[in-house]
Known about the structure:
A: alpha+beta; two-stranded antiparallel ribbon; 2 helices; B: mainly alpha; 2 domains; 4% strand
Amino acid sequence: MSMFSIFSVSGSAISAQSQRLNVVASNLANADAVAGPDGKGYKGRQVVFETVPMGSEASAGVKVNAIKESQEPMRKMHNPAHPSADAEGYVTYSNVNPVEEMVNMISASRSYQNNVEVMNTAKTLLLKTLQMGQ
Amino acid sequence: MIANMVGTLDFDSKALVLRAERQRIIASNIANADTPGYAARDLDFKAAMNDASGSNQNIAMATANGSNPGSNGLATAHARHIRLPGLPGGTVGTTSNLAYTSQSQPTADSNSVDLDRERANFADNSVRYEATLRFINGRSKTLLSAIQGQ
């Protein structure tokens, strides 16, 4: 009914976007992580967003529904001198694509900023409404 | 007398509630800009304002024909016409005029939010909200100075 629910809608979006940013950060941090001799290295993760109804038909928030692991093949490099190399001399790295993750990071931070701006505008309007008749 | 004085104030307050409603809808669209499968919504402000202020042309037509308007403001010209099962319209704050916006360009995740359009709408709507607020302030100041007679 009132504009107060903008704060819960945009707040949910901000928390979802910051979770996305967190996942991007851990992906980037592990981009060059090396797998052990068993071949199980770090797999890139992606968040899956989902709409959450908030009270009425008009307000829809966001939540992170799931964090899914990427099914891309792991990156392999031939380096027999590496201590983690397997029997054939290949070293398994994580399947994170740093370029994709940077794009993801920029998109998340833009969305975050958009929602902050929405909240600021709503706050200004509500404060002006409080001063009505003065 | 008092009805004349507060009549315009009433109109502006309804407009303010609808502006707040639209602000909320656009905020939801911006929040869901990255959600797969989300369909952007918008409020038909003109129709909603017509419904809220009761100055709907359909209602005028319906009363001229002697029949009652349907629950969603649509007139029926015959007693056996089936009325559309709309949401209860006519009161401020109901979402009877909520529609889905058209997609400006196709997306892989079938999300129809156009962030540029939504941001423009958001800025436009907040300016109009402030304008309505100023109208109310101005009217109430006029009334107060008339009452005080100074």
